[in-house]
Backbone:
């Protein structure tokens, strides 16, 4: 059975907390996306650096220029 995937739109307090809880409960793989650079990207990097979650979070940044 394949693992479920969830996209959380918005990397603010609610979005990042939602993404964190989904991973903590092992409900799905999570993609956290936001239109802003900076704080949301920093939160995603913080989640990746938590160690045990490194297998569940993949950080990818895409720039349109």
Residues:
């Amino acid at each position: 059975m394949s693992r479920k995937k969830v996209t959380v739109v918005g990397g603010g307090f609610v979005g990042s907390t939602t993404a964190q809880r989904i991973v903590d409960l092992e409900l799905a793989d999570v993609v956290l996306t936001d239109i802003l650079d900076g704080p949301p990207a920093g939160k995603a990097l913080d989640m990746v650096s938590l160690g045990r979650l490194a297998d569940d979070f993949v950080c990818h940044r895409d720039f349109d220029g």
Q: What stands out?
A: The chain has a mean pLDDT of 76. The radius of gyration is 11 Å.
